Prior knowledge:
This protein has helices at about 15-25, 35-50, 85-90, 145-160; strands spanning about 1-5, 10, 55-60, 65-70, 80, 95-100, 115-125, 125-135. It is an alpha+beta fold and about 170 residues long.
Amino acid sequence: xxxxxxxxxxxxxxxxxxxxxxxxxxxxxxxxxxxxxxxxxxxxxxxxxxxxxxxxxxxxxxxxxxxxxxxxxxxxxxxxxxxxxxxxxxxxxxxxxxxxxxxxxxxxxxxxxxxxxxxxxxxxxxxxxxxxxxxxxxxxxxxxxxxxxxxxxxxxxxxxxxxxxxxx
Length: 168
Ligand code: SME
C-alpha cells in the first residue's frame, strides 16, 4: 500500500513505518518521565501520515480511560473500559481496527468527521497502562500493516519507558 507522507510525497507505508521505528528508537529517552516521551511519540507518528485526523493516549485508572497527550481536536476525557472502540481494545487487551466507525456498536464520536479508527492497547508487565487511539476522516484508513507497525512502536515505548510509578 502506498500513502502520501506529509513531508516526502508518495512512498510505501512500510517504508514510512521502518523509518519511524528508527527515528522513535533515538527519540525516546530512558529515565525521562512517561508524559514527555509519550508527547513526542504521538507527534512523530502524527507528522508521518496525512491520513491521521486524531492521535492520542488514554490512560487506564480503575475501570476508566482518561485522556492523555494527543494531537487533533478536543476529545472526550473519560471512557469506561468496555465502552467504545478504546474501551473494547482495553478490555480485550487487543488491537481493534474499525473500517467504518458508524457500524461499530457503541462507538464514541468525539469528532463527527471521523470515519475509521485503530486502537492499540499498551501493556507493561501484564498491567494495562492505557491505549493508543488513531482516527481518520477516510474510511478503512487502517490495515494489518498499521496494526503490525503500531504494535511494534508501542512495544518500543513499553521497552524504553518505565510506567511503574506513573498514574494519571
Ligand atoms: N472513538 C473513540 C473515542 C475516542 S476519540 O475517537 C478521540 C471510541 O469509540 O472509543
